[in-house]
Amino acid sequence: MADFFDLLKTRRAVRKFKDEPVDHDLVMEIIRDSCLAPSGGNRQSWRFIVIHDQDLIRRVSDDSKANLIADLDRNPESSARPYETALRNPNFNVFYNAPCLVIICGPLSSRSVVVDCALAAAYFMFSAAARGLGTCWVDLGARIQEPALIEEIGLPPDHRIVAPIIIGHPAFIPGVPSRNEPKVLKVLP
Q: N or C: at which end does the chain have fewer Cβ atoms within 10 angstroms?
């Protein structure tokens, strides 16, 4: 396994994967690691949906795309505007044809659900990277609304999707992009 400080410097968002499945037991090990993350009040409000089926991953992508396009058509200020060309391409899969999708979600009743799930997602991505796997948090895939699809993937009605993460064996790992220096607003004695 990789050294933690090396992981901090080298983990990258991977969007191109080998045509090779990810072992389900390995995904479960990574999920167990992600549950070591801290959470508000130790509520551990994260839940996981694991999808290996390529057709189902594509249908989740298509539903999310349709909802994003509808938002683009109604709202000139849509946050999806930078992705409009890709979203309108019928061949574009928001999950980049990854062999596995893990959706981290949690109950709406938990006031810290977004932070809790985001911490679990960070742990998930580092655990996967330590095992030589690539991941990418794909927020464009969080917009599913089709009731039958929501039921099929097992998302409870009182839960929200926080982090759809693709995982697989990377075809290549992108280079390290430049990072800004920290912007410390103030240091107090």
A: C
Question: pLDDT tens-digit profile of 61-70?
Answer: 999 999 999 9
Which stretches of the chain are assigned E, i.e. beta strand? 47-51, 100-107, 134-137, 159-168
The pair of structure tokens assigned to 44 is 């551990």
What are the extents of the domains in the chain? 4-168
CB 135 within 8 A of CB 62: no
Distances in whole angstroms, Cα of residue 101 to Cα of each of 7, 50, 60, 145: 22, 6, 10, 17
Which secondary-structure segment (H or E) carries 33? helix 24-34
Kindly give the pairing relationship between strand 134-137 and strand 47-51: unpaired
- Identify whether the C-beta of residue 103 lies closer than 8 Å to the C-beta of residue 49: yes
Which of 3.30.1050.10, 3.40.109.10, 3.40.50.1110, 3.40.50.2000 would CATH assign to domain 4-168? 3.40.109.10
